[in-house]
Amino acid sequence: MKGSNDYILWVDNVIKTFEGIHALEHVSFGVKKGHIKALIGPNGAGKTTMLNAISGLLPPDSGSVYLNNQQIAGLTPDRIALLGLSRTFQLVRLFTINNATVLDNVLLGAHKHLNPSIFEAMFYRGRMKRKENEAKERALNLLKFVGLEGAEDALPGTLSFGNQRLLELARSLMTEPKLLLLDEPASGLNDAEVESFIKLLLAIRDKGITILIVEHNMKVVMKIADDIIVLDFGKKLAEGTPEEISKNQQVVEAYLGTQKNSCKVEK
Amino acid sequence: MKILSRFWWILPIIFIAIYPFTLGGNSPYKSGVLIFVGIYIILAVSLDLLIGYCGQISIGHAAFFAVGAYTSGILTAKYGVHPMFAMLIGMLISTALAWATGRPVLALKEYYLAMATLAFNEIVITLIIGLEGFTGGASGLGDIPPFKIFGFSLVNHIHYYYFVWIIVFFIIAGSLAVVKSSFGRTLIAIHSDEPAARHFGIDSPRYKTRLFMLSSAFASIAGSLYAHYMGFIAPDDFGVISSVNIMVMLYLGGIGTIYGPILGATFMKILPEITYQFQDYELLINGIILIIVLVFMPKGIYGIILKAINRVLRKV
Amino acid sequence: MNDVSHIIQFLFSGITTGSIYALIAVSLVIVYKASQLICFAQGEFFVFGALSMITLTSKGLPMPIAFFAAVFISVCIGSLIQQVLIKPIQGSSVGNLIVMTIAISLALRGLALIIWGRESYILNPYTKGEPLFVFGASLQIQVLWIVGITILVLLIIWYFFEKTSLGIAMRACAENPLGASLMGISVQKSALFAWAWGAGIGALAGAVVAPLLFIQYTSGVMPMIKGFIAMSIGGLGSIAGSVMAGFLLGLVESYTIGLISSKFSDTIVFALLMLVLIFRPNGLFSKS
Amino acid sequence: YAQAQKVYKIGGIFSLTGYLSWLGEYKKKAAELKVELINKAGGINGIPLQLISYDDTSSPEQASKVAQRLISKDNVVAMAGTASVPISGAVASMANRYKIPTIINSGYAVDTAKDPFLFNTSHKTDFAVVTAFRYFQKKGITKLALLMPIGPLGELGSNVARKYAQEYKITIVGEEKFDVKAPDVTSQLAKIRTMNPQAVFSFTTGEPAALIARNMEQLNLKVPFLVSHGNANPGFLKLVANINTEILVPSGKVMKPDALSDNDPTKKKILEFNKSHMEKYKEPANYFSAELADAIDLIVEGLKITKSADPVKLRDAIEGIKNYPAMQGVYTFTAKDHHGTKPDDMILLTIKQGKWEIPK
Amino acid sequence: MILSVNNLNAGYGRVHVLKDISIEVNEGEIVCLVGANGAGKSTLLKAISGIIPIMQGRVTFRNLDITNSRPNHIVKEGISHVPEGRQIFGSLTVRQNLLLGTYIRKMKKEEISRLFNFIYSLFPILEKRLYQKAGTMSGGEQQMLAIARGLMSQPKLLLLDEPSLGLAPLVVETILNVIQHLKSTGISILLVEQNVNAALEIADRAYIIETGRIITTGNSKELRENDEIKRCYLGM
Ligand SMILES: Nc1ncnc2c1ncn2[C@@H]1O[C@H](COP(=O)(O)OP(=O)(O)OP(=O)(O)O)[C@@H](O)[C@H]1O
Ligand SMILES: Nc1ncnc2c1ncn2[C@@H]1O[C@H](COP(=O)(O)OP(=O)(O)OP(=O)(O)O)[C@@H](O)[C@H]1O
Ligand SMILES: [Mg+2]
Ligand SMILES: [Mg+2]
Question: Please, are residues D234 and D228 in contact by the beta-carbon 8 Å criterion?
Answer without folding.
Answer: no
